[in-house]
Design a protein that fits this description.
Elements (H helix, E strand, L loop, with lengths): L2 E13 L17 E2 L12 E2 L1 H16 L17 H6 L14 E3 L2 E5 L3 E9 L6 E10 L4 E11 L6 E2 L2 E2 H19 L12 E8 L2 E2 L5
Parallel strand pairs: 2-7
Antiparallel strand pairs: 1-8, 1-11, 3-5, 4-8, 5-8, 6-7, 9-10, 11-12
Helix pairs in contact: 1-3
The structure holds zinc ion.
Zinc ion binds next to helix 2.
Length: 215
């Protein structure tokens, strides 16, 4: 088993709407402010944890390929055979022959904007029409930008991989690009269905060469 290549995808994550990363939607005090927007401990600027980007990409790719795990099909895939498992690692499988997780997603530092706003959210009581559980959530303002950096390592084990007409390491890269495309369709962070987390990737490059996502 031998590592045969390393590719880097870089770019900018541009927030088209407010972005909310790190907050829990469920466990909030009534009337309280959810100040759990993830911030760098020293600079106090918000950032997007690489694990958030990676987890969302994985879940999008699993949805598009119909790959789920767990007894209720409610967990990440652990089949040890599909491309999701190869690229992201099989879920809860300590023993497998896929080799190391291929994708490395770095924390996305804030490079522009980064101010936060408080957005009011509540649930409307269906019978009385009044607001229940009013609360304020903190989110990063629209227009903010974060740096995207993803590494894709290729091993000799990947030589026979195929995806979208590509093989080997190129197949893995196509797969990751599709993950980015799906992420752009839905968004990042929490509150997506309430209008947060809409993003657009800009200035995407593969090993320094510009590319665009296939629509
Ligand atoms: Zn799988």
């Amino acid at each position: 088993m031998k590592k045969t290549g390393y590719h880097e995808i870089t770019g900018t994550i541009h927030c088209l709407s407010g972005l909310r990363v790190g907050g829990s939607d469920e466990l909030l005090q009534i009337g309280g402010t959810d100040l759990t927007c993830v911030k760098h401990p020293v600079t106090l600027r918000p950032y997007i944890p690489g694990s958030s980007i990676k987890g969302k990409m994985r879940s999008e790719l699993e949805q598009w390929r119909g790959k789920f795990g767990g007894k209720d099909n409610n967990e990440p895939c652990g089949c040890k055979e599909c491309l999701v498992c190869r690229v992201f690692g099989p879920h809860k499988q300590a023993r497998h022959d896929l080799g190391p997780t291929r994708i490395v997603v770095r924390d996305a530092a804030c490079v522009s904007g980064g101010e936060t706003e408080l957005k009011s959210e509540n649930v409307i009581d269906r019978k009385t029409g009044t607001a229940m559980h009013p609360r304020k959530i903190e989110r990063v303002v629209a227009g903010s930008e974060f740096s995207l950096r993803i590494g894709v390592q290729v091993w000799d084990l990947d030589a026979a991989c195929e995806y979208n007409g590509k093989t080997g390491g190129d197949a893995l890269i196509e797969f990751v690009k599709d993950g980015l495309r799906f992420l752009q369709q839905t968004g990042i962070g929490s509150g997506i269905s309430k209008g947060s987390g809409e993003i657009e990737f800009r200035n995407l490059m593969l090993n320094g060469t510009p590319f665009t996502l296939v629509k």
